[in-house]
Amino acid sequence: DTAVSQTPKYLVTQMGNDKSIKCEQNLGHDTMYWYKQDSKKFLKIMFSYNNKELIINETVPNRFSPKSPDKAHLNLHINSLELGDSAVYFCASSQDGFYTDTQYFGPGTRLTVL
Amino acid sequence: KNEVEQSPQNLTAQEGEFITINCSYSVGISALHWLQQHPGGGIVSLFMLSSGKKKHGRLIATINIQEKHSSLHITASHPRDSAVYICAVGYDKIIFGKGTRLHILP
């Protein structure tokens, strides 16, 4: 059983399109995250949700909108895709927050914007 | 100056060697994480520390809050330990180091 899953694994799209990445965790965790890893392999946190409520929202363009329909899912919707959005996006979950608990990462979604 | 600095950036060692990777940070923190990113891209959380020392198998992580420094040690290193090791600190925001690329030669 996959603990944290993401779909799709690869996403290739044109500039200006809108796309979504889905994340699901079957660990019963309360907190979920989205991270972006750029071409230089540098990780940055984008969002964190706890029990469907947004608790971390880093400086991310408002073209990125997270949606948490329930605590097991945290989807990432991206409007008007730009070349600079090309990256690997990782979803993660933990029982408690970043400051108190280890995280479990999904396999990543490689987004390429042409 | 980056808020989180890792050293070395790259490390190549022979199988069996004792490995130390360092992480220094410039702010007061609530927690520090060590992550391992495999060559295939997958990320595994190794440790979460707020004080002291933790051990898991051949891996040991320590943190000195006063000195704002953490170390990750690998004993009896093995080629399968080859990966990028990343530290991340959390205070009022979460900041990642740029990673240490470790290559263990058989």
Structure in a nutshell:
The complex is a heterodimer of chains A (114) and B (106). Chain A has 114 residues and is mainly β.
* Structure class of chain B: mainly beta
The helix content of chain A, as a percent range, equals: under 10%
- What proportion strand of chain A? over 45%
End-to-end separation of chain B in angstroms reads 36 Å
Characteristics of this structure?
heterodimer, A: 114 residues, mainly beta, 7-stranded mixed sheet, 4-stranded antiparallel sheet, 0% helix, 55% strand, globular, B: 106 residues, 6-stranded mixed sheet, 5-stranded antiparallel sheet
Describe the overall structure.
The complex is a heterodimer of chains A (about 110) and B (about 110). Chain A is an all-beta fold and about 110 residues long. In chain A, about 0% of the residues lie in helices and about 55% in strands. Chain A is built from no helices and 11 strands. In chain A, strands 2, 4, 5, 6, 9, 10 and 11 form a 7-stranded mixed sheet that branches. Chain A has a 4-stranded antiparallel sheet with strand order 1-3-8-7, with no helix packed on it. In chain A, a hairpin with a 5-residue loop joins strand 4 and strand 5. Chain A is globular and about 40 Å long. Chain B is mainly beta and about 110 residues long. Chain B is globular, with a radius of gyration of 13 Å. Helix content of chain B is about 0%, strand content about 60%. Chain B starts with a strand and ends with a strand. The mean pLDDT of chain B is about 95. At the A-B interface, strand 5, strand 9 and strand 10 of A face strand 4, strand 5 and strand 9 of B.
